[in-house]
Specification:
Blueprint lengths: L2 H17 L1 H38 L5 H21 L10 E3 L5 H14 L6 E5 L4 E9 L2 E11 H6 L2 H13 L3 H26 L6 H37 L1 H28 L11 H7 L6 H13 L11 H8 L21 H15 L1 H23 L6 H14 L6 H10 L4 H10 L5 H14 L4 H13 L9 H25 L8 E3 L4 H12 L6 E7 L10 E6 L8 H11 L6 E5 L6 H7 L15 H5 L1
Parallel strand pairs: 2-4, 7-8
Antiparallel strand pairs: 1-2, 3-4, 5-6, 6-7
Helix pairs in contact: 1-2, 1-8, 2-3, 2-8, 4-6, 6-8, 6-9, 7-8, 8-9, 9-11, 9-12, 14-15, 15-16, 16-17, 17-18, 18-19, 19-20
Length: 631
């Protein structure tokens, strides 16, 4: 099933769920049962054929045909049994908590459970993620009584007060509440089961697994599409349960605070934390600093922009969670910044809170020791490069000055590099890299001056227009206190943003259209961009080799665009689209880049023949905070 068919199936079933909810749920249940019936039927067929072949062999009719039939039955039965016992969830990362270790937390959990009438929790785990989740994991593969497991992230407890953490816990409990919750949890487990099973079967090239593989390739995408609406409805229902416990305003405030603070961590904290590798050869744990920073209200300008961006997001079929705007609307909660949590919920861990922070910091440093060391070495290389530019400052060209300023910002974000960017613009007023840099570092400049830089960037070329328009709209939508709104300017830049995004979409569509080996040339990246791309590729251990080329788009001849061919033979085919999506998000090139994995259709020999030699070889994998390292 291709993506367009999947989206069509999702939309049809969303319509059915709205028109006839009970009928829709019956359809989902029957289709879910079909998967189990297939496995049971495969086992029954394997047993029947195997016994039949054994009876003929035992009677003395020893023929190769009966032997092959017996081996085929054994293989079919084995692959079906392996499918039933596929592991849905290994032991979680982190540490399992007991009531003796955190009595206040377990008391709160008992109160939430009693009020929402949820099931008993079998396990409570503490980890270092900014998240909370609940899951039901069958004890024996796909069968057996489920284990109810709650996971709470230490940063989440640092960021929220107790009422808002209660809203999060009530939401998680809401996924399992009552008959509706049990049915939704069963469907969730079934979705996960079939996805994992499909991945395992894709790795099995045996003849005995062929039949199960063909069925699952047809069945799994259709089941995911049919059950999508139910999974999204379950999120809304869990939000309503949370609102009934703590109130819609508190539940909505928790959603907004989580959104803003998670954005702050991604855009600011991790960048600054990894910059510590510039001077520190040994890793530094992040949680000690986060304990205080997450309890501090974020800057108002950043919070307003983060909320604005979150409210502009649209739901898509890659995620069953509704976007923030839809969740707030369903709760009738205000879409505005809340009063920030004044006291974190970390006190629920009692006197052991500091010990938990230290323990997770030590584990973080241990797990990332090699990555931190590699990043320290890269930062030292940047320092050496910067020193070379300083020594040749009088003879540097515009591009080298811009790279110097960019590297200075990566080494120490507090360094003022505005003078370097201004020097470039004194030579070349339309230098796009310097204009983008100056807009980014001179946030205290007058609005008219920043808009003037953005106007010049807009005129500099089509590759930079979306960025310029987004920044201009963001500036004009929140004028300084006491300043009048520039309605005409805002209207102009909004129209420009709309036009630029339409042009970007057209370029992307052209880039995604085969044939892949026409209009190719060597990439045109500078040394810093090359280093960035190779570092980003090194974060993904399945990538063994990669080839990067520029693709000229005849209908968009003024735009820069790139193809990235990837060789990842050990990565299951089902996981390759996810890798490509990650790379699209992580790579920051002067134009759009389309990653393509070598496979049976896109042959490795053709890639090697047309792409001017490998761009990348194996590098050690990196941390989960990839974007922070790049910045």
């Amino acid at each position: 099933m291709d993506h367009a068919d999947f989206v069509h199936h999702v939309r049809v079933n969303e319509y059915l769920s709205a028109e006839n909810p009970s009928g829709y749920r019956r359809r989902v249940a029957l289709f879910a049962a079909l998967g189990y019936a297939w496995i049971a039927g495969s086992l029954a067929a394997a047993a029947t054929v195997g016994l039949w072949a054994l009876r003929h062999l035992a009677s003395g009719h020893v023929r190769m045909g009966w032997l092959f039939l017996l081996l085929g039955a054994i293989g079919l039965g084995w692959t079906s049994l392996r499918a039933l016992w596929v592991r849905l969830d290994a032991q979680p990362d982190g540490h399992r908590l007991t009531p003796e270790q955190a009595p206040a937390l377990f008391k709160l959990l008992a109160q939430v459970r009693r009020k929402v009438k949820g099931p008993r929790l079998d396990e409570v785990w503490l980890d270092d993620r900014f998240n909370a989740s609940i899951s039901q994991v069958p004890r024996f593969g796909l069968v057996g009584a489920p284990v109810n497991r709650l996971r709470i992230g230490l940063p989440m407890m640092m960021a929220l007060d107790v009422p808002r953490l209660s809203a999060v816990l009530a939401h998680e409990y809401g996924h399992l509440r009552g008959n509706h919750g049990r049915f939704a949890a069963w469907i969730y487990r079934t979705r996960l089961s079939w996805m994992r099973m499909n991945e395992h079967l894709a790795e099995d090239d045996g003849a005995a697994a062929w039949l199960n593989r063909r069925f699952m390739a047809w069945y799994v995408p259709r089941f995911l599409a049919r059950s999508f609406a139910l999974a999204r409805q379950d999120e809304y229902e869990a939000d309503r349960i949370s609102a009934r416990l703590v109130g819609a305003e508190t539940a909505g405030a928790a959603l907004v605070e989580i959104e803003v603070k998670s954005s702050w961590m991604a855009e600011h904290f991790w960048r600054q934390h990894w910059q510590g590798a510039t001077d520190q050869p040994l890793p530094q744990g992040p949680l000690k600093a986060l304990r205080h920073l997450l309890a501090t209200p974020p800057e108002d300008a950043f919070a307003q922009e983060a909320l604005r961006q979150a409210l502009r997001q649209l739901s898509h079929v890659d995620d069953t969670h509704p976007v923030l705007k839809e969740r707030l609307a369903a709760l009738s909660a205000p879409a505005r910044l809340p009063t920030w949590s004044r006291k974190s919920a970390l006190g629920l861990l009692g006197p052991q809170a500091e010990a938990w922070v230290q323990r997770f910091d030590q584990a973080w440093c241990r797990d990332r020791a090699s990555t931190w060391k590699a990043h320290h070495q890269r930062q030292q290389s940047l320092k050496a490069r910067v020193q070379g530019w300083r020594e040749r400052a009088d003879s540097l060209g515009s591009d080298e000055l811009t790279m110097w300023a960019t590297c200075e910002r990566r080494l120490h974000s507090a360094v003022d590099t505005g003078a370097l960017y201004a020097q470039v613009l004194s030579r070349n007023p339309a230098h796009a890299g310097a204009l983008r840099g100056l807009v980014s570092v001179r946030e205290d400049a007058a609005l008219a001056e920043r808009l003037g830089w953005l106007e010049r960037l807009w005129q500099a070329g089509a590759d930079h227009r979306s960025w310029a328009a987004r920044r201009a709209v963001a500036l004009l939508e929140r004028p300084a206190p006491g300043a009048a709104m520039d309605d005409a300017g805002l209207k102009l830049w909004r129209q420009r943003l709309k036009d630029a995004q339409a042009q970007d979409d057209a370029v992307w569509d052209a880039l995604c259209a085969p044939p892949w080996f026409q209009h190719l040339s060597r990439h045109d990246l500078n040394e810093l961009e090359v280093d960035d791309v190779r570092t980003a590729l090194g974060w993904h251990s399945p990538i063994e080799r990669a080839w990067l080329v520029t693709r000229r788009l005849p209908e968009h001849s003024q735009r820069r665009a790139y193809l990235l061919f990837i060789d990842c033979p050990q990565l299951p085919e089902a996981q390759r689209p996810g890798l490509c999506r990650q790379l699209i998000q992580q790579l920051d090139l002067p134009g759009p880049v389309l990653p393509l994995c070598a496979d049976d259709e896109l042959k490795l020999a053709d890639i090697e023949r047309h792409t001017f030699g490998p761009f990348f070889g194996p590098l050690p994998p990196g941390p989960s905070e990839q974007a922070a390292l790049r910045r």
